[in-house]
Amino acid sequence: MISSAPAAPWVPQSPAMRVLTERGYVNQGTSLAGLDSTLSTGSVPVYVGFDATADSLHVGHLLPVMALRRLQQCGHKPIVLMGGGTTRVGDPSFRSEARPMLDDEQISTNVAAIRGVFERLLAFGDGPSDAVMVNNADWLDGLGYIALLRDVGRHFSVNRMLSFDSVRSRLEKQESLSFLEFNYMILQAYDFLELSRRFGCKVQMGGSDQWGNIVSGVDLVRRVEGHEVFGLTAPLLTTSSGAKMGKTASGAIWLNAARLSPFDYWQFWRNTEDGDVGRFLRLFTDVSLEEIARHESRCGAELNDAKELLATEATRLVHGDDAAASAAEAARASLSGGSAVDGLQRLSVQSDELELGVTVVDLLVRANLASSKGDARRLIQGRGVKLDGVTVESVDATIDSTHFETADAVRLSVGRKRHVVVALAGERFGGSHLRNQQ
C-alpha cells in the first residue's frame, strides 16, 4: 500500500511518527499506518543512504539526516549507509546526464570527509539506539554478476523500472541512460535487503527523488525474505517563492566548513524568506514547537529575531556551539560597522601579488561575492562595495601592500550582509588587527 502525507482524521500513535508529521518530514510512505505500528514496538533500525560524490554533503542532504536525528531522539536506531559501492555507478534519478566516475581513492577521501557531519547530528555507539555507519562496498564489491542476476535481478520487472518518474523523465527527454546507471535501482534495493539481514533494518528514508529506488527495495525484501519493511520520503524542499531550497547564486550550501565557512552558513539561514522561517525552524533545529509557534506569530521587523534564532540553531547543529556563536557575533558586528572577524570567510592573497596590486574586481570574483568580473564592476558602479567600510569608487581600484602596513587584514564587503576578510597568505589575524572601520 502506498500512502501520502497523513491527513485528518488519521492520527499517528507512535511518538516517532507524531514528531515526524508535526515537524514536516513526511511526504510519501509505502504504508504509513504499518510504519506507525512498527515504530511503537521498540527500537527500530532505520537507514538513509548517501553516495560519496563530493567531500561534503549540502543542505539538500540535511532533511533526511535530521529525520534520522528525530527518530534517534525517540529511541530508534539510525543506520548511515555510505555508498562506497554505488558511488561508482551513479544514481540517474532526475539527472540529465551521468555523474563523473570517481576512483576508489577519491571515494574513500570523500567518505572520511563526510563522516564529521553525522557525528555532530547523531550519537554513535554500541547501544540499541546508537547510530552506526556502514559502507555498501563491503557487500557490493563481493557480488558475483551471475549470482546477482539469478538471485536479485529476477525479482525486477523492466517494465516497472521504466515506469518510475526518475527513469521515465530521462527517456522522455531522449537523454542517454547507460546500462550502468540503470542497474543503480537494483543495487540500492539490494542494500535494503542486506541491511535487513545484518541489522534487522525495517525502514529506508530518503528524499522524494528516491521514491522509485525505495519502493524497489521494499518490494525486494518482501519477495526474498517474506516480511514487510517500509519506505518513507521527505518532501521536496522549496522556498515560499518556489525556488529550490539550498542553492544560491554562488552554488550549493555545503555542510563542511572547508567548503563553506560557518559565517556564510549562518548568513544563508539568516536570509530565509519570511514565509519559511517557522517551517525551517521545525525541520532544521531542535527548537521546541511551542517556541516556534510564538515566533511564527510575529511579523515585520520582529521576525528578524526568529531568523537569527534559525541561523544560530541551524549553524550550532552542523558546526558546533562556538562556530555558531562566532558567526552570530560577526554578523552583528558587520551590521553595526564593528571590526569582529571571527567566523568570516577568509580570502588569502600572496605578498608578490600585492607588489603590483590586486584589483577589487578580481577579489570580488575570487571571494564569490560576484559571479563574474562584469557583475563585480556593476556592484562597484552601484556603490555597493566597501573596503574597511569605505565605498570603492572606481572599477580599477586595487589592494596593494600599503593596505597592510598598519593591519594584517582588510574587510571586503558587498552591501550590509556579505563580507570576506582579505589577508596575507600564512598570516594569522584577529578582529583587533583589522584597521579601524570608518
UniProtKB/TrEMBL annotation:
Q: Which CDD domains match?
A: S4, TyrRS_core
Per UniProt, which keywords does this protein have?
Answer: Aminoacyl-tRNA synthetase, ATP-binding, Cytoplasm, Ligase, Nucleotide-binding, Protein biosynthesis, RNA-binding
The answer to whether keyword 4Fe-4S applies is no
What cellular component GO annotations does this protein have? Answer: cytosol
InterPro entries found in the cross-reference section: aa-tRNA-synth_Ic, Rossmann-like_a/b/a_fold, S4_RNA-bd_sf, SYY-like_C, Tyr-tRNA-ligase, Tyr-tRNA-ligase_bac-type, Tyr-tRNA-ligase_bac_1
Q: Name one Pfam family in it.
A: SYY_C-terminal
Location comes to:
Cytoplasm
Q: Name one GO biological process term.
A: tyrosyl-tRNA aminoacylation
Motif annotated as 'HIGH' region, chain positions: 52-61
Residues holding L-tyrosine: Y47, Y184, Q188
Q: Which SUPFAM superfamilies match?
A: Alpha-L RNA-binding motif (SSF55174), Nucleotidylyl transferase (SSF52374)
Q: Where does ATP bind?
A: K247
Q: Which residues form a coiled coil?
A: none
Catalytic activity annotation: tRNA(Tyr) + L-tyrosine + ATP = L-tyrosyl-tRNA(Tyr) + AMP + diphosphate + H(+)
Return the Gene3D superfamilies for the record. Answer: HUPs (3.40.50.620), RNA-binding S4 domain (3.10.290.10), Tyrosyl-Transfer RNA Synthetase (1.10.240.10)
Q: Which residues form the Tyrosine--tRNA ligase SYY-like C-terminal domain?
A: 358-418
The protein's Enzyme Commission number: 6.1.1.1
Motif 'KMSKS' region, residue range(s) on this chain: 244-248
The molecular function terms of the Gene Ontology recorded here are: ATP binding; protein homodimerization activity; RNA binding; tyrosine-tRNA ligase activity
Q: Which family does it belong to?
A: Belongs to the class-I aminoacyl-tRNA synthetase family. TyrS type 1 subfamily.
Q: What does this protein do?
A: Catalyzes the attachment of tyrosine to tRNA(Tyr) in a two-step reaction: tyrosine is first activated by ATP to form Tyr-AMP and then transferred to the acceptor end of tRNA(Tyr).
Describe the subunit structure: Homodimer.
**Record protein name field:** Tyrosine--tRNA ligase
Q: Which organism is it from?
A: Variovorax gossypii
What lineage does UniProt assign to this protein's organism?
Bacteria, Pseudomonadati, Pseudomonadota, Betaproteobacteria, Burkholderiales
